[in-house]
Amino acid sequence: MFRNIKQGVEMVNTPVKEWLTSQGISYRDLATRMNQSPSSISQKLNRKTKWQEDDLAWLADNLGLSADFVIGKADYPYRNQAEALA
Contact, 1 vs 8, CB < 8 A? Predict the structure, then answer.
């Protein structure tokens, strides 16, 4: 995780944000797909608010992301990826 100060606002580069960028998925696109506001998604991605259980289920079901990866407790985005690489 990297910290970046932009116009006096601290930005946090989390693995899930980097993953979204690598997949070409914008915050606005993710918000639309999840039926949420862009500001809500931004707050969750910047760790200002917590992901809800429904969010984590949606991310797993629709993007294949593990809840542990989304909340920052795992290095690998996909379920069982760590075991597959071992």
Answer: no
